[in-house]
């Protein structure tokens, strides 16, 4: 595999930073969460990365980029949002390979909270079929007789909710649940305070991700600053360490954040921020707009091939 990486090319032979996005690491595959990796595949990917790359936290990599001392093959493993399985499933795997991750926390969902996207998944999982009728709350009628149909329903509902303001989104989720009661939803999906401290004490970097995962471009400049700073301060009080890096919610340049948000993070004293633009970061990259990508692929051959393809993209153009 290493020979293939060498032959097919890291960009122009220059140092390049690959930042990988994960959210959850499931104990076993879940048909309603096809985008989430399971423990066996995560173990194989971390083993591959530890063997062929220099693994760094985001802040370490940003400093190496600024000082132009990035290793030729550098990579960061990042997790978004703050799921409990980052500790219970992912951490033991990372520890076996001597790897540290950067975990970006949306603080408002910890200690028994739930991301709206997870509420949708678990709601649809528990809903009695063969049809989910949410027409009374303007969310359509969905077939849910099979896992495939339930997955389509989940996607459709998440799209309707994604760009609503947090308060409006929460109210719509409540209306959805009232229109089709399903019983109690899980309350242990996210980290609690003690678990987050464990991750930090184990050497993983803890970064900011706002309070409630609000897309920054939907907020006023003052509102965006409050989301960023309140989340950061909460984490710092809890773990007793500075929060130096940040992940933009959703993370697409222009649509989800802009140059003003990158400047705001710099003014607040952050040292790095990551987007969800594909590509790798090369020397001279804007460390407040570092690209990241999701390492899809059910085989290690596909994983390596997609890493190489992503490396050829280079870094995204900075938003202005």
What would you note in describing this structure?
With 320 residues, the protein is of the alpha/beta class. It folds into two domains: 2-111 and 189-311, TIM Barrel; 116-179, no CATH class. 41% of the residues lie in helices and 13% in strands. It contains eleven helices and eleven strands. The protein has helices at residues 2-8, 39-52, 58-66, 85-96, 116-126, 147-162, 166-179, 193-201, 221-239, 259-267, 300-311, and strands at 16-22, 25-26, 37-38, 54-55, 73-81, 102-105, 131-133, 141-143, 205-208, 245-247, 272-274. Strands 1, 4, 5, 6 and 9 form a five-stranded parallel beta sheet that branches. A two-stranded parallel sheet has the order 2-3. Strand 5, helix 4 (85-96) and strand 6 form a beta-alpha-beta unit. Helix 5 (116-126) runs antiparallel to helix 6 and helix 5 (116-126) runs parallel beside helix 7 (166-179). The radius of gyration is 20 Å and the shape is globular. The mean pLDDT is 92.
Task: Give the topology.
Elements: H1 2-8, E1 16-22, E2 25-26, E3 37-38, H2 39-52, E4 54-55, H3 58-66, E5 73-81, H4 85-96, E6 102-105, H5 116-126, E7 131-133, E8 141-143, H6 147-162, H7 166-179, H8 193-201, E9 205-208, H9 221-239, E10 245-247, H10 259-267, E11 272-274, H11 300-311
Parallel strand pairs: 1-5, 2-3, 4-5, 5-6, 6-9, 10-11
Antiparallel strand pairs: 7-8
């Amino acid at each position: 595999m290493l020979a293939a990486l060498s032959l097919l090319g890291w960009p122009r032979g220059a140092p390049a930073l690959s930042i990988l996005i994960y959210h959850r690491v499931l104990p076993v595959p879940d048909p309603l969460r096809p985008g989430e990796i399971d423990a066996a595949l995560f173990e194989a990917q971390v083993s591959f990365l530890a063997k062929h790359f220099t693994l760094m936290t985001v802040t370490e990599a940003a400093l190496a980029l600024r000082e132009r001392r990035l290793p030729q093959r550098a990579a960061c493993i990042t997790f978004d949002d703050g799921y409990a399985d980052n500790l219970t499933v992912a951490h033991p795997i990372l520890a076996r390979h001597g790897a540290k991750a950067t975990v970006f926390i949306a603080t408002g969902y910890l200690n028994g909270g739930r991301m709206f996207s997870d509420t949708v998944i678990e709601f649809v999982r528990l809903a009695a079929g063969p049809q989910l009728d949410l027409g009374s709350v303007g969310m359509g009628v969905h077939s849910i007789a099979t896992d495939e149909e339930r997955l389509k329903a989940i996607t459709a509902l998440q799209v309707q909710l994604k760009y609503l303001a947090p308060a409006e989104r929460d109210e719509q989720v409540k209306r959805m649940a009232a229109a089709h009661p399903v019983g109690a939803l899980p309350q242990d999906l996210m980290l609690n305070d003690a678990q987050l401290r464990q991750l930090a004490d184990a050497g993983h970097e803890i970064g900011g991700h706002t309070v409630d995962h609000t897309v920054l471009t939907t907020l006023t400049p003052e509102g965006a600053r409050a989301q960023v700073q309140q989340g950061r301060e909460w984490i710092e009080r809890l773990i007793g360490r500075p929060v130096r890096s940040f992940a933009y919610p959703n993370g697409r340049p222009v649509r989800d954040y802009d140059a003003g948000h990158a400047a705001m993070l710099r003014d607040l004293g952050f040292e790095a921020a990551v987007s969800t633009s594909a590509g790798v970061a090369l020397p001279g990259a804007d460390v407040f707009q570092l690209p990241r990508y999701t390492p899809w692929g059910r085989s290690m051959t596909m994983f390596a091939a997609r890493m190489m393809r992503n490396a050829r993209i280079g870094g995204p153009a900075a938003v202005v």
